[in-house]
Amino acid sequence: MSAAAQAELELAVKEYQGLQKDLDKQMDTRQKIVAQLHESEVVQKELEIVEPTGEVYKLIGPALFKQEQPMALDAVTQRVRMFTESIKTTEATIERMQKSMEEKRERLITLQQAAQASRLEQMKPQ
């Protein structure tokens, strides 16, 4: 196996491993966003139960601040929409990364097969 082919194979492996790490990060990000979405949906359901004239408090740092129910519900609804859009964006990114990884994996297999064929060729008696 030539040095150039070996270098190309090593580069392909590093690229694949880098993509795998990036994909893992995106999956973690998606998981965190989904958790935040579920939490916001619970808050949204609770706020929908409260009457519009009911008292709602928001924790900001160590203090509780009174907030009107319609405003609180509006803010939580917007946050739910934001998290939903963020999940869609993250899933699209994950899908693109998986496609790229599949292409790199196929290229890696081709390079490994070529390297193996080269080694077998070198082992043949002349």
UniProtKB/TrEMBL annotation:
<comment type="similarity">
    <text>Belongs to the prefoldin subunit beta family.</text>
</comment>
<keyword id="KW-0175">Coiled coil</keyword>
<keyword id="KW-0143">Chaperone</keyword>
<protein>
    <submittedName>
        <fullName>Prefoldin beta subunit</fullName>
    </submittedName>
</protein>
<feature type="coiled-coil region">
    <location>
        <begin position="87"/>
        <end position="121"/>
    </location>
</feature>
<dbReference type="Pfam" id="PF01920">
    <property type="entry name" value="Prefoldin_2"/>
</dbReference>
<feature type="coiled-coil region">
    <location>
        <begin position="2"/>
        <end position="29"/>
    </location>
</feature>
<dbReference type="InterPro" id="IPR002777">
    <property type="entry name" value="PFD_beta-like"/>
</dbReference>
<dbReference type="InterPro" id="IPR009053">
    <property type="entry name" value="Prefoldin"/>
</dbReference>
